[in-house]
Automatic annotation (TrEMBL):
This is 2-oxoadipate dioxygenase/decarboxylase. The keyword Transmembrane does not apply. Keywords: Dioxygenase, Iron, Oxidoreductase. One of its GO terms (molecular function) is dioxygenase activity. Belongs to the 2-oxoadipate dioxygenase/decarboxylase family. InterPro entries: HGLS. Its EC number is 1.13.11.93. It comes from Escallonia rubra. It comes from the Eukaryota. Its cofactor is Fe(2+). CDD domains: VOC_like. The lineage of its organism: Eukaryota, Viridiplantae, Streptophyta, Embryophyta, Tracheophyta.
Length: 313
């Protein structure tokens, strides 16, 4: 197996043998996501059904608690082990969050795969800056990450199984976190589960390959979008649905609905220096890469109460 730079890599062969171990794990993470989020599942099926299209994932996203080794690094290790490269950091001071994104290894993929069997996705991992939270919130987050013990070393496994690495919290603890940070409350009940997958609009073959058409198609089919954003350079266009909710049984036997995951759409336009390429010459690296704080700031709110109540209302 030969990479773009022309060398033979072990890394590449780790992805070549049929359905690789790495892809199996991504597949388990995706299966958890699809089983808990009927909207995401329906949208993936719907978009894929137009001209029998293949879906490429632009990225998968995860949330973590940035405290005592339970933050971004706990999950990033898995992706780094399989050849991903750490890229830029994004800061969200008002939400007390930071994020890092990771680009996939340059491995050839068989053109026949869809979703986790398509081109490897970017990975976006964020963390709550726990030290900056109120004492009450810190106390709850520290309690559960301590209960987790060395669970942080098995973050990818937890994500693939759909298990929390800590015990279920009390309802009042969830509510307490939700008052200060929807992100914290989400992470307490969802742990390392996939927060969203993102459909790569420009890699669709149907007319949905521009995000405006895709957004309209999603809304015409009865789904609500939460946000639409364009990066300042105009080259990264993103939109997302409102998260599904799931019934969650708390440790004190109270059952309540909690936000689960949503689905996102991204269109990456050609970088200016490549805009005269013919369509069949265009590769992903000719397009705008990375993420954008302004877009992300709104996308984070896809799991927030205000958004969820919009669907119920
Ligand atoms: C992540 C929100 C940001 C993006 O693509 O910029 C994001 C989250 O909700 O955890 O997904
Ligand atoms: Ni995203």
């Amino acid at each position: 197996v030969v990479s773009k730079s022309g060398e033979r890599t072990d890394e590449a062969s780790a992805f070549q043998e049929g359905k690789s171990f790495f892809r199996s794990i991504l597949g388990s993470m995706e299966a958890v996501y699809l089983s808990r989020n009927p909207t995401a599942k329906a949208i993936l099926e719907l978009v894929g059904s137009v001209n029998n299209d293949q879906i490429c994932y632009d990225h998968l996203a995860f949330r973590t608690f940035g405290v005592n080794g339970h933050g971004i690094d706990s999950l990033a290790r898995f992706f780094l082990d399989f050849g991903y490269t750490q890229r830029e950091e994004l800061k969200f001071p008002a939400k007390k969050l930071k994020a890092l994104w990771y680009s996939p290894p340059d491995v050839p993929h068989l053109d026949s795969g869809s979703c986790v069997n398509g081109p490897l996705p970017r990975i976006f991992i964020s963390e709550l800056l726990v030290d900056q939270m109120s004492p009450k919130t810190q106390e709850i987050v520290r309690k559960y990450t301590e209960i987790s013990g060395t669970g942080n070393k098995h973050a990818a496994l937890a994500s693939a199984l759909g298990s929390l690495t800590w015990e279920k919290p009390k309802h009042s603890e969830f509510e307490e976190l939700a008052r200060e940070s929807e992100y914290a409350a989400w992470t307490l009940v969802n742990g390392y589960a996939v927060n969203h997958v993102t459909i790569s609009a420009h890699r669709l073959k149907s007319h949905l390959r521009d995000i405006k058409s895709l957004d309209r198609f999603i809304e015409d089919n009865g789904f609500k979008l939460n946000s639409e954003g364009v990066s300042p350079d105009g080259l990264l266009l993103q939109s997302s649905t409102v998260a599904d909710t799931i019934s969650f049984q708390f440790s004190d036997n109270i059952t309540d609905s909690v936000p689960c995951s949503y689905i996102e759409f991204a269109e990456r336009l050609l970088l200016p220096q490549y805009k005269n390429l013919r369509e069949n010459e265009v590769k992903e690296f000719h397009r705008r890469d990375g993420f954008e704080v302004g877009n992300a700031d709104k996308i984070f709110e896809s799991t927030s109460k205000d958004q969820l109540s919009r669907i119920v209302a």
